[in-house]
Amino acid sequence: MASEPADGDVHVFERTFTHADVEQFGEVSGDRQAIHTEPDSEGRLVVQGLLTATLPTKIGGDLGVLARSMEFEFLEPVYTGESITCEVTTESVDEREDRYDIACAVVCRRAGETVLNGRFEGLVWKAGQ
């Protein structure tokens, strides 16, 4: 963990998913529906929802969060070649003797349009724990 979590912390990560990302995730997850394997008229694949949800999990991993619960609402499809920006905002931090219990809000956007909303709760161990 880079620093102690605090209410109002905002962390941002941006990624553009590729055909290879969608194909690899399909192999691992078994989600190989036609929308994920057959390009549309513009040559794009639909990115699996849970692959899109790896954006906030990447931020959580960077922060050392051990998730207890996650909730996602998939609002719009995400396509390969699109830049998606994920913003995670810490809504609450409860300090314990050995850890911080945190709750975070998630918003993922494509050119300002929200494609995914969510939240997660978890814990961050204090240094030396």
List the helices and strands and how they pair.
Blueprint: E1 10-16, H1 19-29, H2 34-37, H3 49-52, H4 54-62, E2 66-74, E3 83-95, E4 99-110, E5 113-125
Antiparallel strand pairs: 1-3, 2-5, 3-4, 4-5
Notes on the structure:
The chain has four helices and five strands. The chain has a five-stranded antiparallel beta sheet. Helix content is 22%, strand content 42%. It is of the alpha+beta class and 129 residues long. The protein starts with 9 loop residues before the first strand and ends with a strand.
Order of helices and strands: EHHHHEEEE
Structural class: alpha+beta
Major sheet size, sense and barrel closure: 5 strands, antiparallel
**Uncertain spans, ≥5 residues at pLDDT below 50?**
none
Mean pLDDT across the residues is: 95
The rough form would be described as elongated
Strand content: 35-45%
Give the % helix. Answer: 10-25%
Q: For the largest beta sheet, what order do the strands appear in spatially?
A: 1-3-4-5-2
InterPro entries: HotDog_dom_sf, MaoC-like_dom, UPF0336/Enoyl-CoA_hydratase
Protein name: Dehydratase
GO molecular function: (3R)-hydroxyacyl-[acyl-carrier-protein] dehydratase activity
Organism: Halococcus dombrowskii
